[in-house]
Amino acid sequence: MVVTASPLTWVVRALWLSLPLTCGELVAASLEGRSGPVRGAAVSLAWALWAAGLLASLVTRPAALTVLRVLAPLPLVASVVCSLDASPSVLGWLGLATSALVLVAANAASVGADFVDGASYGDERRFSLRPPAVLLLGPVPVTWALTALVLPTGVLLLAARQWVAGGVLVAVGALSAWWGFRVLHRLARRCLVFVPAGLTLVDELSVVDPVLFRRRDVHRIGPAPADTTALDLTSAATGLILQIDVDPAVTVTPTVGRGRTTEAVAVGSVLVAPSMPGALLAHADERRLAVQRG
């Protein structure tokens, strides 16, 4: 399937491409007076991370989305740190603004939708799911810090001849980056997939195995009523919740906490939280599913 990037995805690419011009002076000013090894390590890290982010922005796949969203906060973090060390010029302030825009745009729903749908093949269409709100309030930022900050900090400490602290952080950072990427990538794999047979929920946070809602069995998909008793598979996501009603009932094995018994249940209605519910309902209409918007 050919994926057409949304305008905002192209904005992310253009903003990322401009970072060396808008943030370069700020970083250079901050590095004045530093030792040669520190300057060399900082510049090498900056170019490597910039190249990785640019490549990730051009490859519309879920794994590239995880890379892009892990790297997106780093220009803003670096710009803020550098601005505290050296007073920003006009171009430096522009770099700060550009870095903030990169962070916001890279995390937009339409950008995520492009990358998640990039894994579609044949007659498929994939729609990303909103992350659980509780994860965004603490676990995700902490995991991001362990993934993106520890290893570069260790490299800079080694360049500054802080051998013990630098060596420990490089070793720990390599492991935490590997672990953190795997954890964060679980969010990018969550999706609802339209297939010729119907609609499939792929979400290891809410169900043990993917669940297929067969086309002929779906008799309603639309906003969930306020008094719904449907099985909640949103993982506590916020925003507009959709309800899928099927007849006959479909077998679902919800994900449960460790130490608890997982049991399959037969349900006639489930709740899901797509990142772009309006676009999903419009596509369901195109596939002639029973869409009800009211």
Number of continuous helical runs = 11
Compute the number of structural domains.
3
Main sheet attributes: strand count, strand direction, barrel closure: 4 strands, antiparallel
| Largest sheet strand order | 1-2-3-4
Percent helix range: 40-55%
Average predicted confidence as pLDDT? 93
Order of helices and strands: HHHHHHEHHHHEEEEEEEH
SS strand fraction: 15-25%
Spatial shape: elongated
Multimeric organization:
single chain
Terminal Cα span: 32 Å
How big is the Rg? 22 Å
Class by SSE composition: alpha+beta
In total, the number of strands is: 8
List low-confidence stretches.
Answer: none
Q: Gist?
A:
The chain is of the alpha+beta class and 294 residues long.
What does this 3D model show about the protein?
The protein is an alpha+beta fold and 294 residues long. The protein has helices spanning 7-31, 36-58, 62-71, 73-85, 90-106, 109-117, 133-136, 139-148, 150-159, 163-189, 277-286; strands at residues 125-128, 191-195, 198-202, 211-214, 218-223, 231-232, 242-252, 265-272. The chain has 11 helices and 8 strands. The strands form 2 sheets. A 4-stranded antiparallel β-sheet has the order 1-2-3-4. A 4-stranded mixed β-sheet has the order 5-7-8-6, with helices on one face. α2 (36-58) packs antiparallel against α9 (150-159). The radius of gyration is 22 Å and the shape is elongated. The two termini are 32 Å apart. The mean pLDDT is 93.
Key terms:
294 residues, alpha+beta, 3 domains, 4-stranded mixed sheet
Topology:
Layout lengths: L6 H25 L4 H23 L3 H10 L1 H13 L4 H17 L2 H9 L7 E4 L4 H4 L2 H10 L1 H10 L3 H27 L1 E5 L2 E5 L8 E4 L3 E6 L7 E2 L9 E11 L12 E8 L4 H10 L8
